[in-house]
Design brief:
single chain, 154 residues, alpha+beta, three-stranded antiparallel β-sheet, two-stranded antiparallel sheet, 43% helix
Length: 154
């Protein structure tokens, strides 16, 4: 009985060790062997997008600062940008006569920044940026009022 059992175990062991021929192209690839250009292209794309974001933000800031602030009631406040955890990154004041030109740029910037944050897998402190309670004009500049304090828009 022992001999039969040993023969059976031996037969099963040898037959289970047979390997199939597998096409090497169908096997998973080692990540270290991935072509660098794929990752490099992503990095270049993200660097280009970061530059576009800086340029768009400069355009928005230029439009927001294109007028002197003399009467606060002529100005509006808008959320600007996107934090990685969600919500606006900041707020910006702009003259109501610039509204038709600046709002689409603010919306585009916010959307692009959210996409950039997602692609970069960025994270932040997830603190909620407090919405300004109003604004006032000081020395020709719009100044946002937050919780009784002020924040000047440059």
């Amino acid at each position: 009985m022992k001999k039969v059992l040993l023969l059976m175990i031996g037969f099963l062991t040898f037959s289970s060790c047979k390997t199939k021929q597998v096409d090497p192209e169908k096997l998973p690839k080692d990540i270290a062997l991935k072509p660098e250009r794929e990752n490099g292209n992503l990095e270049q794309e993200l660097a280009l997008e970061a530059e576009r974001l800086r340029s768009l933000r400069a355009t928005i800031d230029s439009l927001a600062n294109s007028r002197n602030c003399t009467h606060a009631e002529e100005w509006r406040i808008s959320p600007l940008g996107s934090k990685p955890c969600g919500g606006p990154a900041s707020y910006i004041a702009y003259h109501k006569e610039n509204e038709e030109e600046i709002i689409p740029k603010i919306q585009e910037f916010t959307k692009r920044q959210a996409d950039y944050n997602r692609k970069r897998n960025l994270f932040s402190d997830c603190a909620i940026e407090p919405q300004p309670s109003g604004l006032r004009c000081e020395s020709g500049k719009a100044v946002l009022i937050k919780d009784g304090s002020t924040l000047q828009i440059d």
